[in-house]
């Protein structure tokens, strides 16, 4: 199976067979996707199918936030490929945009995502409801 990064489109969020249940309906996903199209975002396409997407968007001059949506298949069969590509895009974006702080929010009920975001260099800083807020200070 061949995977590649492709430009993110809002409709890609509808194509993903999510690894975790989504609390958003189709219109909410499209709205969220249109917002994410404004930042730097990519989709993981494997053999013509969208298996995930991730991106980064500025929240101020030197700050940004990251987001991601993954399918079971991407996590199960392409985790190393996914991690390497996200790591490279994240590191390059931080360097080029001269970011000093990047934030991520992860559901604390998903410890595998918590461990993964920590491997990307983020550290937990606070709990906000169902989420753990992670930051990567540079």
List the helices and strands and how they pair.
Blueprint lengths: L2 E5 L4 H4 L10 H11 L3 E7 L2 E12 L2 E8 L1 H6 L1 H19 L3 E7 L3 H9 L3 E6 L2 E7 L1
Parallel strand pairs: 4-5
Antiparallel strand pairs: 1-2, 2-3, 3-4, 5-7, 6-7
The count of β-strands is 7
Rg for CA atoms: 14 Å
Please give the alpha-carbon distance between the first and last residues: 36 Å
Contiguous low-pLDDT stretches (5 residues minimum) are none
Task: Walk across the major sheet and give the strand order.
Answer: 1-2-3-4-5-7-6
Helix content: 25-40%
Instruction: Give the overall form.
Output: globular
Q: Please provide the ordered H/E string of secondary-structure elements.
A: EHHEEEHHEHEE
Largest sheet: 7 strands, mixed
Count helical runs.
5
Counting helices, strands and paired strands, the structural category is alpha+beta
Strand content: 35-45%
**Average pLDDT, to the nearest integer?**
94
Structure described in brief:
With 138 residues, this protein is α+β, with helices and mostly antiparallel strands. The chain is built from 5 helices and 7 strands; from the N terminus they run E-H-H-E-E-E-H-H-E-H-E-E. Strand 2 and strand 3 form a beta hairpin.
């Amino acid at each position: 199976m061949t995977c590649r990064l492709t430009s993110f489109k809002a409709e890609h969020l509808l194509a993903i067979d999510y690894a975790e249940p989504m609390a958003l309906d189709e219109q909410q996903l499209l709205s969220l996707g249109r917002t994410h199209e404004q930042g730097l975002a990519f989709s993981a396409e494997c053999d013509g199918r969208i298996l995930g997407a991730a991106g980064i968007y500025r929240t101020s001059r030197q700050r940004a936030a990251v987001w991601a949506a993954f399918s079971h298949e991407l996590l199960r069969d392409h985790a190393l490929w996914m991690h390497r590509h996200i790591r490279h895009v994240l590191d390059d974006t931080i360097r080029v945009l001269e970011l000093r702080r990047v934030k991520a929010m992860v559901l604390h009920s998903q410890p595998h995502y918590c461990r993964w975001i920590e491997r990307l260099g983020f550290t937990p800083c606070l709990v906000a409801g169902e989420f753990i807020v992670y930051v990567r200070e540079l």
